[in-house]
Amino acid sequence: MKCHRHRERDAVGVCAACGKGLCAEDCAQDGDFGLHCDAACARRLQARERAGASAPVAWFWSILLVAVGVALLYYGYRYSEWSMSVPNLLGMLFVWYGVVLLLQRAADRTHKS
User: What is the pLDDT of residues 35-55, one digit of tens each?
Assistant: First the structure.
């Protein structure tokens, strides 16, 4: 990969905001949130990091997915004639996806601290 500004130079990294190749001499700027190519990308990275800090809403949606999945599983096993009915399959999918999201968020939280 070559630098996006200097086509004759090899890139040593990529901008974390826009994904462009960066050379070591002039373009790669190491910031608080990763490599960036200019001030606009640095602001974009900072805004992305601030948006990630408002994660309590994301926890709510993960827990809601698990709760809906459990409700579907209950309904499917209680009122369905088949063991693998649509509510059961959807319930398993919702629970699985909600648990995966919760585990990812927990891993991100421990990784950041």
Answer: 888 888 888 888 877 766 555
Q: Which amino acid does the sequence have at 33?
A: F
On the question of pLDDT at 112 being above 70, the answer is no
Query: What pTM was computed for the model?
Result: 0.50
Residue 67 confidence (pLDDT) above 70: yes
Is the separation of the CB atoms in 12 and 37 below 8 Å? no
DSSP string, 16-82: TTT--EE-TTTT-EEETTEEESSHHHHHHHHHHHHHHT-THHHHHHHHHHHHHHHHHHHHHHHH-SS
Compute the Cα dihedral for 102, 106, 111, 113 and give only its sign.
positive
Domain ranges of the chain: 13-52, 56-112
